[in-house]
Specification:
By secondary structure, this protein is of the alpha/beta class. 25% of the residues lie in helices and 27% in strands. The protein binds zinc ion (2 copies).
């Protein structure tokens, strides 16, 4: 089959590799859509310390089951599926305490084991979740990033009638906006410098959109979320948290970045600073939200390229001109 292979950091190859050999509990999925995100850039750039090379990238995907191992239950050939790419060990202390996303033996498709930027990918059947026949597979491939958003909202205490402030209206920021009212927001303010993204933020339910937080003056919000990962933005965001409110660090900053905060304000305002990392017990609910609600997620997919254009797709992600960039291996 054809697949993208990152042989080592900076070395991307698109070529023929052996078809995946399914284990007894695996299904083989013909990949229809596979998204690219910042994590993939880090894997390609050698900035993801847990990555194991060579690796086929791709952890956000959907497609059709074409083969099933002999112990597979409940998923048949022809089923349309997406899958949770994370395969925690279940044995380490974080896993045993319910923090499988923080597993000490990190194992994930597209990072340590073969991912879905390939014509076919094998996945344990219990991680594959069904999608309706005829469902838009590009949206199916958004279930994984959506499950990160669901996890983020799981971690913060929100109340009906809270005022939200979200920095960044990229794919993740817009998904946060799309679900904010579902977790209680009465207003959602978005800070986003790009004009087109500001318009999209409105269409996803933002009540106020501004190009810069300067326009907010000293306004404060119950819930403030950073979906940018940019240090000056983080520092600015902390200044807009209402006393008693919550700040959620959702955006991924560089691993060695440092931001300043006031311990006095953290104490005296009784604010909560919360971090959210990837997916935890949230994949199935994200699947249901994507399938059963009309969130309009297909608007997030701005570019679809053939597998052979993976390097170009990466550059589009890096340039940040569009929103979600996907490859469509089936049409390669
Ligand atoms: Zn991702
Ligand atoms: Zn573990």
């Amino acid at each position: 089959m054809r697949a993208v292979v990152i042989d080592k950091p900076g070395d991307i190859d698109v070529g023929d590799v052996p078809d995946p050999a399914p284990g007894p509990g695996d299904v083989v999925v013909a990949v229809h859509a596979c998204g690219i995100c910042g994590t993939d850039l880090h894997v390609v750039d050698g900035e993801f310390s847990l990555a194991k090379y060579p690796v086929v990238p791709g952890h956000e995907f959907a497609g059709e089951v074409v083969e099933v191992g002999k112990h597979v239950k409940g998923v048949g050939v022809g089923a349309m599926v997406t899958a949770d790419p994370n395969q925690p060990c279940g044995r380490c202390r974080p896993c045993r305490e319910g923090h499988e996303n923080l597993c000490e033996e990190f194992r994930a498709m597209g990072i340590t084991i073969p991912g879905a930027c390939a014509e076919y990918v094998a996945v344990p059947y219990w991680l594959a979740r069904p999608l309706p026949q005829g469902f838009d597979m590009s949206v199916g491939a958004l279930v994984e990033p959506l499950s990160c958003v669901v996890h983020g909202y799981d971690l913060i205490r929100t109340r009906l009638g809270d005022h939200f402030l979200i920095y960044g209206a990229g794919t993740m920021g817009l998904m946060l906006v799309a679900l904010a009212q579902r977790v209680g927001a009465v207003s959602v303010t978005v800070v986003e410098p790009h004009h087109q993204r500001r318009q999209l933020a409105r269409s996803f339910g933002a009540s106020t959109v501004v190009a810069s937080s300067v326009e907010l003056g000293d306004e404060r919000f119950n819930i403030v979320i950073d979906a940018s990962g940019v240090v000056p933005v983080v520092e600015d965001a902390l200044g807009h948290v209402q006393r008693g409110g919550t700040y959620l660090q959702f955006g991924v900053a560089p691993a060695d970045a440092k931001a300043q905060f006031s311990p006095y304000r953290l104490y005296n305002d009784e604010t909560s600073y919360v971090g959210s990392m990837a997916v935890l017990h949230s994949f199935d609910r994200a699947r249901d939200l994507a399938v059963e609600l009309d969130l309009g997620l297909s608007r997030l997919v701005t570019d679809t390229l053939p597998l052979g254009s993976y390097a170009k797709a990466l550059e589009q992600v890096r340039a940040g001109s569009g929103l979600k960039v996907q490859v469509a291996p089936k049409e390669a």
